[in-house]
Design a protein that fits this description.
The chain is an alpha/beta fold and 354 residues long. The protein has 2 domains: 238 residues, TIM Barrel (Alpha-Beta Barrel), CATH 3.20.20; 93 residues, Chorismate mutase (Chorismate Mutase Domain, subunit A, Up-down Bundle). It is built from 13 helices and 8 strands. Helix 5 runs parallel beside helix 6 and helix 11 packs across helix 13. It binds phosphoenolpyruvate and manganese (II) ion.
Length: 354
Amino acid sequence: MITKKKKFIISGPCSAETEIQLIETAKELAAIGKIDALRAGIWKPRTKPGMFEGVGTIGLSWLLEAKKITGLPTVVEVATAKHVEEAIKFNVDILWLGARTTVNPFSVQEIANALKGIQIPVFVKNPINADIELWSGAIQRIQQAGIEQVGMIHRGFSTYGNTEYRNAPMWHLPIEMKRRFPNLMLLCDPSHICGNRKSIQSVAQKSIDLDFDGLMIESHIDPDYAWSDANQQITPTTLRRLLDDLIWRNEITDKEEFLNALNGLREQINQIDDELMTLLSHRMKIADKIGAYKKANNITILQTIRWNEIYQKAHDKKDLLNLSEEFLIKYLDAVHLESINHQNNIMNNGDKIN
Ligand code: PEP
Ligand code: MN
């Protein structure tokens, strides 16, 4: 069911609240004609006590009813062995591990053990912190339980303080996961990344442009009055518009003209990358000489004034080079650190400075 099929769309409310809310939402979603599965949170992991923690098992019977009426397969978050058992009892079609579960290997293993001997597709959301090993480890635990259809959901990462996003996307992490697990389906959950309604469309589009296989988006018939995540849920009508406006792109094509042009440009880039690396190697040889010179004269490796000059250079050149200041600083920082390591090597035959 969740083999790498493009445009796999999961939607439904953050939480199942009442039978009517769930079934009405499901009917409107089914009418869109582009939804592959219906989600609903039954047990909600809330950050603070006293918040709505889900309706529990009764919600599974509403979900089963919604499936009967709409034909939509159902998707539920599980966080314990008991949740797995209940979900299976109520014929849930797909399970997912939430961000607060993926973060805990004990919980993931408990779920993996409960899944032994069962075949059901399982999605693993990224952990709340930006730890790619935890995410990979959780996937491996589920795979080792014998689950054949495992997928990944990118829902962003917690950061401190107020930022543009509720959970920072840090796109390089799901991109790395795609590299590590090329055969697993990767969905984006723009609802939990954004935490608001206005940027869901652009985050969803961005994920599609990065060759994600689909989306999980929260929807509710009356989002303003949702019992959880009210700010980020959208109506099925808004979702329909969002899906209509999405532009799906192909990762590959066999159009010869395009492929020739692309290969030509990539060849140029490869050439430039080789030249850049050769230049960096020259640059480090000069750093080695500086290191030897500083050693002979008993001068420190790091000189703050020099470092400030580098920052200033990034600021002054960014417009001329049409490169962002952020990139230039990252680049200069990395080059500078490598240079310090080279000098340290010369001075102390030394350990790396990290
Ligand atoms: C959810 O999907 O409602 C949810 C709790 O998500 P996450 O685990 O990404 O916070
Ligand atoms: Mn939610």
